[in-house]
Structure formats: C-alpha cells, structure tokens
Specification:
The protein is mainly alpha-helical. The protein is about 70% helix and about 0% strand. The protein has 14 helices and four strands. The protein has a two-stranded antiparallel sheet. Strands 2-3 form a two-stranded antiparallel ribbon. A hairpin with a 4-residue loop joins strand 2 and strand 3. The longest helix is centred in the last third of the chain and has 27 residues. The chain is globular and about 50 Å long.
C-alpha cells in the first residue's frame, strides 16, 4: 500500500491507497530503456529495409491510441469501443489543417485538442452509465462518428476520404537531415511522437491522479466513500484518452497520406481493445508489445500465404491460455520468478 489518505472531499489527484507492482521499478525501467534502445537500433542494424520500417511505423501509429485506451481500460477499468472514432476526429482535423498549409506540430496539437474535446462532450453523459451500458454507448458513439466521416462529403470527402495529405517538411539537425517523406525519416518521427506520449502515460500512471484511477478500478464505492470525486476522475481520463487517440489518428493518416473512414470503423476499435489485451492492460509497455504482435506479426507471416492466419490465430490462442495478463504480465511473472530464484 502506498500514500496516505487525505481526509474530507478529495480533489482530482487525491491520494488513496493502492497496491503497487511487485516488480522493482528499476528493473521495469531497465526493460523499458532496452525496448527503446532496440527501437532506435533497428534502422542501424537493418539498413535498406523500407518495408520493415513501414510495418514498424504502422505499429507505432496503433500503439499511440492504444496507450490512451490503456489509461482508460488498464488503469481506470473502463472499456471503450469508440476509441478509433476519437482517433478519426483527430485524423480529419490534422488532415484538413495540413492540406490548408498548417505545419505538422500545430496540426498535431489541434488533433489532440479536437479528440479530447469530443471525448469530453461524449463522456459527460456516457460516464453516468455503468458496466455494459457504458460499453454499448461508446460502441454507438464510434458508429455515429464513422457515419459522419462517411457522409460529410463537403468536409471529410465522404467514402473517398481526403487524399494527398502532405508530409512534414525535412528537418535539418545540423549533423543530418530528416526527410519525413522517406520511410526512415517518418519512422524517427513516429518514434518521437510515441516516446512523448509514452512519457505522458508514465507520468499520469505514477502521479497521484493515476493512483486514484487505480483505486477506482479496484473498488469504486470505497474510493467514493473516501471522498474521491469518481465522476470527475473518470471524465478527465476519458478526455485524455480521446486526446491521445486523436494524436494517433493524425499520425496514421500522415503516414498513409490519406484520411479514409474505413481506417476508423468499429473493427479498428475492436482491434485496439485486442492490442491492449494482448500487450497487457495496466502495463506501460503493453500497448507497444500488443501493437507489434497484432500489426507486425501478420505482415511478417505473409510469406506463409494462406497459413499465416492459421499461425496467427494459434499464437493468439496460446497467449490467451498461457498469458491471461498479456505479454507484459507474462514477462513480469518471469521476472518475479528470476528474483525469487536469485
């Protein structure tokens, strides 16, 4: 247990008791640094592999909105089936601004604001519902947003979408020039955006606000009895999750250079839930590991032709049976066994 309980009504970020992970933070952060070091070493160790970089970049684009869903689901215990709808809001916002000549970073910031604002407006009525009713409403919201993307021809381009989204201008670092029109340059851009969102996710989880979210997930009634404003905390994390989804959606359409409704349909939201489940909900690295498995593995199995879906399905079944807490949970369990053996 950690942290003291504050008496009286607790504002956003109030301290409440919550269990910590058994694995030492130092080992966890060493693993995180090792993963980022490996990501940075990929272009050096595997030069001249544009297809590999494209797949890894796409996995990073999925990992960003998955981190938002991880905050919502893994730490607050709220399951949303409309996450890619909020990603679509950010994607179309960024696409329209970029086609209008706005630079990439301001467009990315506006995508986050647009996604977060829509999430805030949706969360005010939706978060008053409980359990499966909340899931059903988020499902309906995702379908409504997809319908808007598909039918607002004058704004979103309708079913054809918005093609020709420009990439950011090359960046001169002095010792090198990053050309974001090439796979290597855009990979570094996607990795930088992912790292920024990852640090935001870690800061939220390690803060008093994150500890309150964990307490709400464990026992909402007890947290409310301690004076925590449960609705305000849920609304804040829901809006933050939608804002992160908006960033991921913007990054995805800039990679593909087109914003199309099919990129933000219901199936994509379900895929995002599967990514979090496979990676391990409630683990910082879960979204990245889940994205690599769910996005990259099927592409790497294309050489197996018709067998690739069978192999991929078997991998998912084995993980579901052998690692119910996802890949991150499996690795954390192995780390605890090594510590006990040592």
């Amino acid at each position: 247990m950690s942290g003291a309980v504050e008496q009286g009504p607790a504002p956003l970020g109030a301290r409440v008791p919550v269990a910590r992970s058994a694995a030492p933070r130092s080992f966890a952060w060493l693993g995180i640094l090792a993963v980022f070091a490996a990501a940075c070493a990929v272009p050096v160790l595997l030069p001249g592999q544009p297809y590999l970089l494209q797949i890894l970049t796409l996995a990073l684009c999925y990992a960003v909105p998955a981190m938002g869903l991880n905050l919502l689901f893994g730490y607050a215990g709220l399951v949303s089936l409309g996450q890619m709808g909020f990603a679509g809001v950010g994607a179309y916002t960024a696409a329209l601004l970029l086609k209008g000549g706005v630079p990439f970073l301001p467009a990315l910031g506006c995508a986050a604001v647009a996604g977060g604002l829509v999430g805030l407006l949706v969360g005010i009525p939706c978060l008053r519902l409980r359990s499966h009713f909340f899931i059903i409403v988020t499902l309906a919201v995702g379908m409504i947003l997809f319908s808007l993307f598909n039918n607002l021809d004058g704004l979103t381009g309708g079913a054809e979408g918005l093609p020709g989204i420009p990439r950011p201008q090359p960046l001169d670092l002095g010792f090198a020039v990053l050309d974001f029109r090439r796979p290597l340059g855009f990979y570094w851009l996607a990795l930088a955006v992912f790292a920024a969102v990852f640090l935001l996710q870690a800061a939220v989880v390690r803060s008093d606000f994150g500890r309150v979210l964990a307490a709400i997930r464990q026992d909402e009634a007890l947290a409310a009895a301690r004076g925590v404003n449960v609705f305000a905390h849920k609304l804040a994390v829901f809006a933050l999750s939608a804002a992160i989804a908006g960033i991921g959606g913007a990054l995805k359409v800039v990679l593909l250079r087109a914003a199309a409704p099919l990129s933000f349909e219901l199936g994509e939201s379900i895929n995002l839930v599967l990514i979090v489940l496979l990676g391990g909900p409630g683990f910082l690295l879960g979204p990245l590991l889940g994205s690599l498995l769910f996005v990259a593995l099927p592409e790497f199995l294309r050489a197996a032709n018709e067998w690739r879906l069978i192999v991929f399905g078997l991998v998912l079944v084995v993980l579901a049976l052998g690692a119910p807490k996802g890949i991150s949970g499996l690795l954390a369990g192995l780390l605890r066994r090594v510590r006990r053996a040592a």
